[in-house]
Design a protein that fits this description.
Largest sheet: none
Shape: rod-shaped
GO molecular function: DNA binding
Transmembrane segments: 90-109
Pfam family, one: HTH_3
CATH topology of the largest domain: 434 Repressor (Amino-terminal Domain)
Domain HTH cro/C1-type: 8-62
Number of domains: 2
CATH superfamily of the largest domain: lambda repressor-like DNA-binding domains
CATH architecture of the largest domain: Orthogonal Bundle
Number of strands: 0
Structural class: mainly alpha
Keywords: DNA-binding, Membrane, Transmembrane, Transmembrane helix
Length: 111
């Protein structure tokens, strides 16, 4: 657990936060942050996620000390659907429309 303790302190100092400031953002006591940094305790999962967000690091970096080699794109660019992609995704709508139009045309020309 010493890796986590050193990571918390390292990333807290990189963000120029005191233990008190970090504790205030997490709604906990300064002593809790001190325990984490000394390796005497660990946060629960909810606090761990909030801590990673505040320190602007991934959970892997914070807990394991591993810098992720790949980044996840938050908003990948959407590409337009080609005709075949559209048909593959919405074939049932096209068939339903053809059926409705065919039924309507047969009723129209019967009477």
């Amino acid at each position: 657990m010493m890796k986590f303790a050193t990571q918390v302190k390292k990333y807290r100092e990189q963000q120029h936060l005191s233990q008190e400031e970090l504790a205030d953002q997490l709604f906990i006591s300064r002593q809790a942050v001190s325990k984490w940094e000394n390796g005497d305790g660990t946060p629960d999962l909810e606090k761990l996620v909030a801590l990673a967000t505040i320190l602007n690091v991934s959970l892997d970096e914070l807990v394991l000390g591993q810098v992720s080699s790949s980044t996840i794109e938050k908003n990948p660019e959407k590409t337009g659907l080609t005709g075949w992609d559209f048909f593959a995704r919405y074939w049932w709508v096209i068939i339903a429309l053809i059926s409705i139009i065919g039924f309507w045309l047969t009723q129209l020309f019967r009477g």
